[in-house]
From TrEMBL:
Organism: Abeliophyllum distichum
Coiled-coil annotated residue ranges, if any: 116-165
Region of interest: Disordered: 1-30
Matches recorded under Pfam families: Transcrip_act
Phylogenetic lineage: Eukaryota, Viridiplantae, Streptophyta, Embryophyta, Tracheophyta
Keywords: Coiled coil
Name of the protein in question: RAB6-interacting golgin
Length: 175
């Protein structure tokens, strides 16, 4: 019972005992009409209070039902989220493993790349030195060929002179 209901009931009992003088007749008692009105007002008030209580209960029940559905949906969403994380997790792990492998290969590639560049420089230097020596060799062979021709011509001239001297000595010995 609410405070307002208690107040009305105490006023009704006071009215019935003749202590309230608002609608009292000249002889100090409530008229039947006043008493009926008070009872009617009180019963109307009680009916309104009961109606309010019923509506409160209905609203509370609807809220509880909504909360129950919300809890069920929350559980369902949590399950879906777990399933999604379960699907995403292996891929994340696999990607992480591949990334680690890539990092490891990159670490190995860096010194290999530097070694490769060093070897390429050495190769280019060696190739250049080889080509230079090869050119020098070709030049020397060409010079040798030229010199051999000169030597050959010189030998022919010497042979010719030796033959001439030999003829001169033979003719001088004959004479």
């Amino acid at each position: 019972m609410t405070q307002t209901q208690r107040t009305l009931e105490s006023q009704l009992s006071l009215t019935q005992s003749g202590q309230i003088s608002g609608s009292l007749s000249f002889n100090g008692t409530l008229t039947k009409e006043d008493e009926e009105m008070t009872k009617s007002a009180l019963s109307t008030f009680r009916a309104k209070e009961e109606e309010i209580e019923k509506k409160k209960l209905e609203v509370r029940e609807r809220v509880q039902a909504q909360l129950g559905r919300i809890e069920e949906e929350t559980k369902r969403l949590a399950t879906i989220r777990e399933e999604l994380e379960g699907l995403a997790d292996p891929m994340k792990k696999e990607v992480a493993v591949v990334r680690k492998k890539i990092d490891a290969v990159n670490k190995e590639l860096k010194p290999l790349g530097q070694t490769c560049q060093k070897k390429e420089r050495e190769y280019k230097e060696a190739l250049e030195a080889f080509n230079d020596k090869n050119k020098e060799k070709v030049q020397l062979i060409t010079k040798l060929m030229e010199d051999m021709q000169l030597v050959s011509e010189s030998e022919k001239l010497r042979m010719k002179k030796l033959e001439e001297l030999s003829k001169n000595i033979e003719t001088a010995n004959i004479a």
